[in-house]
Fold this protein.
Amino acid sequence: MSLLVLAVASCSQPVEKVDKYAIDCTQMRGFNYTPAGVAEPRHHIDTWVKYDEDVIAYDLDLAQGLKLNFCRVFVPWQCYDEIGDTLAIRLKDFAHKCAERDMLMMPVVGSGRWTRDTTLLYQAEEWVDFLVAALKDEPNLAMWDIMNEPDLNVRMREANFENCRRMYGLFKEKDPDTPLTIGFQLVSSMIKMADYADILQFHDYSETRAEVRDTVARAQAFADQVGKKIFNGEMGCVGRANPYDVTLEEHMKANMGWCIWELMVVRKGWGMIHGVFYEDGTVRDPSIPAAILGYFRNREDIVPEDPDRENRITNAMAGIEQWKKDGAKDWDAGIRLAELSANTLEAAQLAPMREAPNWQVNQLRKSGDLKEMKELLDKFYTMMKPYKKSK
């Protein structure tokens, strides 16, 4: 579903005027985006400096497959400093690729060296001029996110808030047709700075369902009070007790628009605790894309798996015992038992999936080591044993 009626025209045709303030934030199903192959600390910069059209298209196809309709993407000032006007070409290409997939885009743009060195304040206006010239006529430019989490660094908080006020004024002067937002870490900061955002935005990585509900309720209540639209610009983290399927379910129940952090598993960035897709389109945890599509794990009235109903646990364990009695030297027989056991463990959810059993089998195939095979079969045997039917 499109959040706006996008009038996407070819370059030879006039662009139809779109009321960007008419966005329905409750229908936002978004993602933060960084290509998987870039590396910290330059990951946001190299998204553009090392821009790869094929990678971008492939990743956005993955997002489209999950019916995502909104992309939040960082565009640091340093990109312009390094590649100049080439950045405008790449920004337009990105906007067009999003539009082709019925996605809105929102660049996060407001941080630069001027936030720490006031002699460089002229760069802020130059940056706004450049961005507006590059993107203001793109119908799927939904908003300008004028600073990411200005409240995160306590020491810099007031200086960052002043930067938000400055960027708000510049964008209002140069592109009044595009709404402005600020990605606050805290709802309290969002409330304090609400006069400098046309559309309110907060981030939340709460650790319990009750805390998620409370944060969303406080944010919605304030938005209703001041008559502004609102969405959550960052959520979902496997390292912060904020499972994607839990927080997504609570936001959907509350009719709160959202952007997950983030689409790709960025191997040399936040990938160890964030992300849905690897660069080849596989996923780390199928419950995440399922939740994005609105399907959630049953945590109330479950039917536990019975993996030995048809003697598959019994037979697998007997096979391992026989393989060892036969000398534990038959590679083909052993690898079949390893895969059979791995499938049994995975299918019935009997094993942790951080290093999934079949991943371990694939590592064994690469090593070709019989000693490792025996150790892995012993491990799988022990894991299956509690689920064997008693005689």
Remarks:
- The first helix runs from residue 43 to 49.
- The CA atoms of residues 239 and 273 lie 5 Å apart.
